[in-house]
Amino acid sequence: MRRRWTATVAITLASVLTLAACGGGGKGAQPSSGGGDAKKQVEVFSWWTGPGEADGLKAMRQIFEQKNPSYTFFDAAVAGGSGDKAKALLQSKLQADTPPDTFQGHAGAELQGYIKAGDLEDLNFLYDELKLRDVFPAQLVDQISVQGKVYSVPVNIHRSNVLWFNPSVLKEAGIAGAPRTLEEFVADLGKVKAKGKIPLSIGSEWTVTHLLESVLLGSLGTDAYNALFKPGADWSSPQVTKALETFKTVMSYAGDPQDDWQPAAKQVADGEAAFNIMGDWAYGYFHNPPDGGLGKTSKTDFDWAPSPGTEGTYLWLSDSFTLPKGAKNRDGAVAWLKVAAGKEGQDAFNPKKGSIPARKDADQSLYTDYLADALKDWSSDKLAGSIQHGVSVNQPWLAAITEAVGLFIGSKDVAALQKALADAAKANAQ
Ligand code: GAL
Questions:
Q1: What's any one GO cellular component for it (predicted)?
Q2: Which residues pair with residue 74 across a beta bridge?
Q3: Beta carbon of 83 within 6 Å of any ligand 1 atom
Q4: Ligand 1 touching residue 158 (CB < 6 A)
Q5: Per-residue pLDDT tens over the stretch 182-226
Q6: Which residue's CA is the closest to the ligand 1 atom numbered 8?
Q7: Is 147 helix (H, G, I), strand (E, B) or coil?
Q8: In the beta sheet, which residues pair with residue 116?
């Protein structure tokens, strides 16, 4: 799998250097206490509890348990898509110096925040031992490094800019295929509305920020989108105003907000709604057998396309696992990281999770259907970093964006949204 990384990587690298200048420091690393007859528990912290995503974690856990009979896997997952609740709890655990043994953190600006706070041990020893620099794309390793030290193990690559749709609902509305531009999308949303179905399903608040990043990318184009995260970026431009006006129009076709991303995606699979813009974890949910997923048939019950206006760009994110300083069971955490880094672990996890492997040497035959499309696009598309999922903005910046989007949902005030987004960029761009 060969990859072309574009501007977004350079941007984050610049922030890496800034962070590096600030230095790490903080808590000291504590090796684990040994001993004890009882099986030692390894606390793995994530937010993969819900239908679809829990399947991926379960598959990786099985490999971990086979390989590590002396450890017990303790699933410390906190419910709530995109980690909105998990990350808040994690922060309090880190501040209280009671970290889980390992936690999920997104490659990019989000992980850089944990590194800067001195929360993480560097993993160079593991990268050397397992020769991991040879198997992960160098530019992905850059996103999780500071000054030559690597701080996490990436398990996957997800795509954020996917338009999921129900082919029958589109047909009923006289829509021939997935819309390729935002203008076509708006026209199609109107056609679905006229038929009395939900044009666009949405979930809890974070799914609206998720939608916003796809609309920004689709409206601005890749280079202008990536430029939004450079120091001094112009969020006040007429181009951003236009993108936000389009966002407002798109949102005017949204159905009632569902509790999280799964019930919103299910409205599409069940034929109640036509479209949903969601990351490709939705594929795992649609496709996995009914004990975890919906067991739906691809191309019949659901279909996909790049979100309107974004064909040729992979709006990417990557889940990775860390070694927090002061973890109670450091050896157990390292054993987990070895599974997460390994080919077997990644090839068990990703087909269920709806993601493609971070490793370049994965067994490509396991990635079929939507995932074959994803592998192909990943190898040739331009890149843009997700906002909602930790690549382009750090957690304080995302919190400010989330607040602005939350207010917008009530007010529908584009000027106020744009000003809040511009202020958030000024306060947080590094
Ligand atoms: C993302 C995460 C994905 C998936 C999604 C929905 O932030 O990277 O793995 O879990 O949230 O919960």
A1: cell envelope
A2: 43
A3: yes
A4: yes
A5: 999 999 999 999 999 999 999 999 999 999 999 999 999 999 999
A6: 319
A7: coil
A8: none
Residue nearest (by alpha carbon) to ligand 1 atom 12 = 81
Atom of ligand 1 nearest to the CA of 81: 12
Per-domain boundaries in the chain: 18-156+319-372, 162-315+390-428
Per-residue pLDDT tens digits for 139-184: 999 999 999 999 999 999 999 999 999 999 999 999 999 999 999 9
Q: Whose CA is nearest to atom 7 of ligand 1?
A: 82
Q: What ligand 1 atom has the least distance to the C-alpha of 48?
A: 10
The rounded Cα 398 to chain-centroid distance in angstroms is 13
Alpha helix segments (H runs only) across 202-359:
205-220, 222-227, 238-251, 261-269, 281-287, 330-341, 343-353
Which residue, among 57, 129, 141, has the nearest Cα to 338 in the 3D structure? 129
Domain range 18-156+319-372, its CATH number among 2.40.128.20, 3.90.850.10, 3.10.180.10, 3.40.190.10: 3.40.190.10
Domains 18-156+319-372 and 162-315+390-428 share a fold: yes
- Which atom of ligand 1 sits closest to the CA of residue 56? 9
Q: Is the CB of 81 under 6 A from ligand 1?
A: yes
Query: Would you say the CB of residue 349 lies under 6 angstroms from ligand 1?
Result: no
Tokens coding 269: 């699979």
CATH of domain 162-315+390-428: 3.40.190.10
CB of 319 shorter than 6 A to ligand 1: yes
Distance between start and end Cα atoms, the chain: 32
Ligand 1 center to 270 CA (angstroms): 22
Residue nearest to atom 2 of ligand 1 (CA): 82
Residue with tokens 């709890």: 89
